[in-house]
Amino acid sequence: MGFKSSLFTSLLMVGSAAAATTTAAAAASTVSVEPIIMKGTKFFYKNGTQFFIKGIAYQQDTGAAGTTTGSTYIDPLSNVTLCERDIPLMQKLETNVIRTYAIDPTADHSGCMALLQEAGIYVISDLSEPDLSINRDSPTWNTALFTRYKSVVDELGQYENVIGFFAGNEVTNNNTNTDASAYVKAAVRDVKAYINSTSSRWMGVGYAANDDDDIRDNMAHYFNCGDQDNAIDFWGYNIYEWCGENTFTGSGYSEVVSFFQNYSVPVFFAEYGCNEPDGAKGRIWEETTALYSSEMTDVIAGGIVYMYFEEANDYGLVSIVDDKASTMADYDTLSTVIAKVSPSSTAMSAYTPTNSPAACPAIGSAWQAADVLPPTPDNSTCDCMVKSLTCVPSDSLNSTGYAALFGSICGLDASACAGITANTSTGVYGAYVMCDATEQISYVLDAYYKNQNSDSSACDWNGQAQVVKASTAASSCSALLAAASSSNSYAATATAGSASTSTGSSSGSSTTSKSAAPSFSRSILTLGDLSVGLYVLVAMATGAGMLVL
Ligand SMILES: *[C@@H]1O[C@H](CO)[C@@H](O)[C@H](O)[C@H]1NC(C)=O
Ligand SMILES: *[C@@H]1O[C@H](CO)[C@@H](O)[C@H](O)[C@H]1NC(C)=O
Ligand SMILES: *[C@@H]1O[C@H](CO)[C@@H](O)[C@H](O)[C@H]1NC(C)=O
Ligand SMILES: *[C@@H]1O[C@H](CO)[C@@H](O)[C@H](O)[C@H]1NC(C)=O
Ligand SMILES: *[C@@H]1O[C@H](CO)[C@@H](O)[C@H](O)[C@H]1NC(C)=O
Ligand SMILES: *[C@@H]1O[C@H](CO)[C@@H](O)[C@H](O)[C@H]1NC(C)=O
Ligand SMILES: *[C@@H]1O[C@H](CO)[C@@H](O)[C@H](O)[C@H]1NC(C)=O
Ligand SMILES: *[C@@H]1O[C@H](CO)[C@@H](O)[C@H](O)[C@H]1NC(C)=O
Fold this sequence. Notes:
Elements lengths: L17 H11 L7 E4 L2 E4 L7 E5 L22 H12 L5 E4 L9 H9 L3 E5 L16 H14 L5 E8 L10 H19 L5 E6 L6 H9 L9 E6 L13 H8 L6 E6 L13 H6 L8 E6 L12 E4 L2 E4 L1 H12 L38 H10 L2 E3 L8 H11 L9 E2 L4 E2 L7 H15 L13 E3 L9 H17 L5 H17 L14 H19 L1
Parallel strand pairs: 3-4, 3-10, 4-5, 5-6, 6-7, 7-8, 8-9, 9-10
Antiparallel strand pairs: 1-2, 11-12, 13-16, 14-15
Helix pairs in contact: 1-3, 2-3, 4-5, 10-13, 11-12, 11-15, 13-14
The chain binds 2-acetamido-2-deoxy-beta-D-glucopyranose (8 copies).
């Protein structure tokens, strides 16, 4: 479940709340917040007191207010007037965490963040937005996504009451799309390294999973296993198993606790609050009592109620009419229930973690993501590659034509496409899987042309391609391109069962990428609409599949 939206738009522009923002920020600037850190499977205030999440999901769907046609999301933390309306209501529920699903990194969040801080409320935010997220049907981890994720970290990371981020929400959601988890784990790795290199304090990077029987155990192990620099800092479970009246065992909560007993990082409910049998307002919150009881608190670090806003899916605590908030019956029930919970806590000094990371799941029909991950998106590498090409798209090729061209070229010459192929189950990736679609089609045109001994007739495609002189590239390009070229040769020849051999090649190229100076130069060719890129990649994958057959 969670935040879903599909309309197309540009980012929300927020500016006129500046005056209110400044006032709120000034008022709160004297309040300092005790940062949250993790140790083993538990969260703590930095002062050593254990921290249990009492959270609420806080994100209004587009169109819910009837005001925002044409937006893919409404930033929940950029309008101080709305934060002033809602935060007191969340405080009355003893809320200490909100989960936001999509924020606009260009907006000013200082007002809302200050109000939250004053209220003792921390934020865990998803990094994606509807138009820039890892798509389970055509998963990728590329420069556009990494740029978006970094911008959210840069923006929210300024505020000490940010605990961390989700690199994905229910991306893999059943056994047909387990491959997508490789890209999400690559995002975890890269965002962790980015936080590590840019922030002076800890912020975690986790994943929010759905609760699908077939995959949940493999998935939990996958995100926890292997090199801990690549593994999640916390596991969020979106769980709706306890509905109405139930019990610890009857609800399946006991199995969750028993499964996660051995997990090595914090686990919490990233969404909970089943609305059956009586709809949102009929919720009685027995599961909340259970969540903070001694049966669970040793293993589960609390949970986030889904959700603040009452909307068409009927999971709300508060309904909004004409910008006015009114609490619903389940809000009152929750406030009574939450007032009575009193989780018994452990002091950080008295706690010695003993669990170790899980083993990675075996690759097979049930799980198709190896722990050898896709490369780190690196604009410099893509940029250097484009500059080195001598066969490139002509003006008459636009993104509509990419799919057909990928299909034709990769069908004629698979080796020309090795640099953009990916196999999650063997962990073999071309170096340019992380570039954008325009860069990729350029690479493929050029590789085909070179494979045809630079015969000019091999760089035409009905006028869609043209021969050019390679541009002068920065001296730093030669090392990047050499590393990419070696990954691509490996990808071209890689066969079954070669995941371990590929480790060297893959990590070699990502190390090179990471150490490269960031480039702010834009590609000479840009693609406006990512969804076109995704479409192209789907078409391409289909083409490549047919080729294998
Ligand atoms: C904040 O929300 C209120 C209520 O919807 C609206 O009237 C106001 O214009 C918004 N402010 C900004 C800066 O968007
Ligand atoms: C640590 O900080 C939290 C939040 O301010 C506070 O509730 C708690 O009492 C503090 N613990 C200690 C040991 O000072
Ligand atoms: C990197 O490339 C992506 C995709 O082309 C683009 O959206 C982004 O702005 C670039 N980032 C930088 C820092 O140049
Ligand atoms: C798996 O999830 C996808 C995407 O939500 C859906 O289209 C497909 O029907 C699901 N398949 C199964 C077997 O549940
Ligand atoms: C963070 O940086 C430290 C030292 O700079 C390093 O030991 C650690 O492995 C890094 N972690 C990640 C996730 O990059
Ligand atoms: C947890 O670890 C113990 C000891 O290693 C083991 O016996 C048990 O089977 C594990 N439980 C799960 C659910 O993995
Ligand atoms: C894009 O190229 C296609 C041919 O592949 C053409 O039909 C279409 O008009 C072009 N669109 C634009 C906006 O140039
Ligand atoms: C990945 O590689 C393995 C081993 O070569 C092969 O069996 C499998 O079909 C490939 N998967 C895809 C999606 O191409």
